[in-house]
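Q: What structure does this chain adopt?
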Amino acid sequence: MNKEFPCDKCGCCCKRLDLVDEMKDFDRGDGVCKYLTPNNECAIYDNRPDMCNTKKYYEKNYKNKMTWEEFVTNCRKGCKALQEMSK
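A:
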């Protein structure tokens, strides 16, 4: 099983923190993560919150509920929805 998340680095998930209560401490005040760099990279990538680390988030919250592939499929649907909201 390949546990690499197919992220396209659009930054949309980092630009809508206002939708996630658990991420309010990372919101710079406009819904954008204060650690998002201008080229859509994470300035604290190695120490990012578990919610931002798909592998850790899956292991802690979804491993016993669905397969990794199902989790990725669901996350990608969320990604697409965020991308549509950003248009």
